[in-house]
Amino acid sequence: MGFVDDGPKAWSEMEMPKDPIDIHIGSRLRSLRERRHLSLSAVGRGVGTTYQQVRKYESGDNRISASTLFRLADMMEVSPSFFFEGLPRRAAQDANGAALDAGDAAMTSSLEQIADPELRHHLEGLLNALTVRSASR
C-alpha cells in the first residue's frame, strides 16, 4: 500500500507555527500554576474552561483571549502584565503612540513590576500629575 495524497489540506487542518509570545505566556501560566500547586483541572474550573484547554494554553498551542487572561490573572492574584514580563520590547510607546525615551521606558517597566494594581494605578496618576505640573512651569 503506497502513500495516498488527499490533495490540499483545508485551512483548519494546516499546521500553524506557534507564536513565541503565546509560548511565553503559556510558560508563565504553567510556572505560576505549578508554584501555586494547582492542577490543570482546578485552573480550568476557575476560569470556566477545561483542563485540556489550559494544557493547550500552557503549551502555546492555543492563544489565550484577553478576557481569559484577565480571569487567569484574577484567579492567580497577579496583574495581567505578569504574563508578558520578560518579553523583549521592540519600541516602547506611550498611550498616544509617541516614542518613549530610555527613562520613560524604564519607568514604565518599573511600574509594570508592581503587582498591586491599585497601587500601580495611583503611582501612575501621581507621575502623570507631576509631569503635567512640571510641563506647565
Topology:
Blueprint: H1 20-35, H2 40-47, H3 51-59, H4 66-76, H5 102-112, H6 117-135
String of helices and strands: HHHHHH
| Overall 3D form | elongated
How much of the sequence lies in strands comes to under 5%
What is the strand tally?
A: 0
Main sheet record: none
| Poorly predicted sequence stretches spanning 5 or more consecutive residues | 91-96
Care to give the gist of this entry?
The protein is mainly α and 137 residues long. It has helices at residues 20-35, 40-47, 51-59, 66-76, 102-112, 117-135. Helices cover 54% and strands 0% of the residues.
General description of the model:
The structure is a single chain. The chain is elongated and about 65 Å long. It has helices at 20-35, 40-47, 51-59, 66-76, 102-112, 117-135. The chain is built from six helices and no strands. Helix content is 54%, strand content 0%. Mean pLDDT is 80; it is low at 91-96. It is mainly α and 137 residues long.
Defining key terms:
mainly alpha
